[in-house]
Amino acid sequence: MFKKVVSLLGILTMGAAMLSGCAGVPTTTASAPATTEAAADASTEEAAEATTDKKFVIGMSQCNLGEPWRVAMNDQIAMAAANHPEFEIIYADAAQDNSKQIADIENFVQQGVDLIIASPNEATPLTNAVTSAYESGIPVILLDRKIDGDGYTQFIGADNVDMGRVAGEYVADVLLPDGGKICEIKGLEGTSGGIDRDKGFREGIAKNPNLEIVAVNNADWLREKAITVAEEMLQTNDEIDLFICLNDPMAEGAYIAAKNAGREGDILFVGFDGLPTPDGGIRSVMEKRISMTQVYPTGGAEAIESAYQLLVEGKELDKVLTLSSEVVVPENAPDLLKKYGGE
User: In whole angstroms, what is the distance from residue 241 CA to residue 179 CA?
Assistant: First the structure.
């Protein structure tokens, strides 16, 4: 192209010189390339405007909004999407109902959304709906919880096995180094994060043979249900040294039950999630209701960034995006509260 422009300039220059010699008419040899450059700039601007003007609809399928952590996830998605006017987010709350979430995802497919973000209620029941959406050509980003198989575009979440292992080792080495009896309150049965946290915790406490899990039950990730579950455990176990609860609201529920029974001073409580909110885990550690938790990033902002890279920039996404977690204990809780925007 450059050679053609140079050749054209040469022809124009020669023609102009000939005209000048015959008639004395002044000429400007830069006029032709200037017009070409202006047209190119206009074309580039039009292309950029066309890209900017294109709108994308994203369906967000949340498994429930009964957990503060999931409310925070939706909030962070909304805040991140506010920086991208080309995105429209449609939210659906399954309220811990697998059938409802399946219907939500199928509805997104029927609407022809450009991308689905989903946090599955349970892995196996949601597998077919998520995989079907993915195989229909709609990119699917999974947040926090996985499905069976690999029928999705990207999974975003922290390593729950590692987080469980870290909690178990902290219990074994620091909280109960001489051993003790543990009650475990799990989340909703069948959720990948809960399965992984339980697995990791048991691996972590295995280093201390004097630790024993004496009772296990599910509270579906909910504080109020955890109060009832913990009350039953307290009634049937005269000796409990620690409650391991797979999220902070359930740890708070166990603490409330122990306090009502007058036993909170004899029992330690460990949770997960570490939100910086007034009712979140970081403040619970600062106020000494919980001995330890871990910051579990929601991945909301990262999901929107991945959506932008895929839909707008046309980039291919990594299959897994692993988020970092941080341990929260009394020594560092104030600093982490400030770091994550708490007051």
Answer: 9
